Amino acid sequence: MSKQIYRFLGLLGGSARDLGPIVLVIAFFQIVVLQQPFPDIGGIVRGLICVVLGLALFVQGLEMGLFPIGEAMAQAMARKGSLPMLLLFAFALGFGTTVAEPALIAVVGEAATIAGAAGAIADTAEARESYAFWLRITVAVSVGVALVLGVFRILVGWPIQYFIIGGYILVISITAFAPPEIVGIAYDSGGVTTSTITVPLVTALGVGLASTIRGRNPLLDGFGLIAFASLTPMIFVMIFGMLA
Amino acid sequence: MAFLTEIAQTVFAQTVYATAYDVLPIVVILFVFQALVIRKKPAHLKRIVIGFVYVLVGLSLFLVGLNEALFPLGKTMARQLTDPGFLGIVTGSDVDWADYLWVYAFAAAIGFATTIAEPSLIAVALKAQDVSGWAMKAFDLRIAVAVGVAIGVAVGTYRIVTGTPLPLYIMAGYVIVILQTFVASKKIIPLAFDSGGVTTSTVTVPVVAALGLGLASTIPGRSPLIDGFGLIAFASVFPIISVLGYDMIVTWLRRRDKHDSKEDMP
């Protein structure tokens, strides 16, 4: 038991170190550059204690829960040898974790406002709502497709750069035809889709698959799922912008 | 400890609820596939459930703390730094990119700092360290990514100030990445591509987005709706370049060391 407590103290120390740069940057700009006093020091200290404690708990939980279940499920599915089920699992994971993502809901809301203002859709609450809803579905489908593609790549063992470079070429060529007001949002949507809980799980899924399938190297083939998930939304959102 | 109970009753409860809402689809999918396809109880189920609870509570505490301590200050700061009054800019005059040096400095510093604290990057770095048998140190990878985000966000703010087109920069970034993949070692490439996607998450997005919107709404001729976006895209492309660059430097140093030690031999 004392060993576990010792380990958790280590994690707390690590979290405090991870938070150090933010505290330094904000303190420097507040005191030296803006030359203003700190409002509500008590609240800041309280918040920092929560942040450090929370980060340590999160890392502990990663190693106990998210990593093991992700790898265990990937291995169990790979041993079952059912390709459709594995791909369905990948799609469900991508779609399911993205469709309810709060950051995404915020972004599609703003996208609808822009589309309304630019005259791409009728500037009514109803039109905006339906635009935001379908954009959200589009992004969720694109992340599902990304994980299917990514899992397929792990199975066949092709080098990831061919896929990514192909994706880049697609992004660039579609940009030329997409309405300019959607481009900024499309480029940003790649970054916001992968939440803090999805990332560890998807990473563990990839590494678990690559370590189970013979001839695959976990480091060479296991990573890269997140890369797919941040590339496809850009392509799908621009196509959506052209069709809407 | 009184403040902990106070927090527990209000914001914390809401954040746990919101985070649980985030976790729910994942748990449902895992459960359905576990029950219908795998049809076997996973090993150490109790430990896994406790782990999920830790993740849920930890992430909620993390978010509540950030909202309490850092986000309000960071966002206010982003607004104040982009204020023409602070920067000493006469309204009505043409925009000169050199007037915004503090903004670029803040963008780089906050981009670096928030990336070091990004939980999903910590997760990927830990896994990479584990899989590579400690050959790829988690902290080194995180520093490399953070340097990339710092440069990316600084260049991104410069783009908003000058009003130059976003796709041009992203394309240039892509070209550099493609050239680098021919030179970099194979084992780093998937990791580098992944680090582009994980950098922009819980901690980085709110502060960086506030900076972009603040800039776009104070500079004449920029629309917050159109020019405010795009910073996240910068923060996703530049870490790929910096991680691949980090690998190229490490390989080069190693080769040079080997060369030197050969010469030392009698």
Describe this structure in words.
- The complex is a heterodimer of chains A (244) and B (266).
- By secondary structure, chain A is an all-alpha fold.
- Chain A is built from ten helices and no strands.
- In chain A, helix 6 runs parallel beside helix 10.
- Chain A is flat, with a radius of gyration of 22 Å.
- The model of chain A has no long low-confidence stretch (mean pLDDT 89).
- Chain B has 266 residues and is an all-alpha fold.
- Chain B contains 13 helices and no strands.
- The mean pLDDT of chain B is 85.
Please provide a brief summary of the model.
The complex is a heterodimer of chains A (244) and B (266). Chain A has 244 residues and is mostly helical. Helix content of chain A is 84%, strand content 0%.
Q: How many strand units of chain B?
A: 0
Shape of chain B: globular
Radius of gyration of chain B: 22 Å
User: How would you spell out the order of helices and strands of chain A?
Assistant: HHHHHHHHHH
Number of continuous helical runs of chain A: 10
- The assigned structural class of chain A equals mainly alpha
Gyration radius from CA atoms of chain A, angstroms = 22 Å
Helix content of chain A: over 70%
Distance between the termini of chain B: 67 Å
What shape does the CA trace of chain A take? flat
Q: What separation lies between the terminal Cα atoms of chain A?
A: 59 Å
Q: Provide the residue-averaged pLDDT of chain B.
A: 85
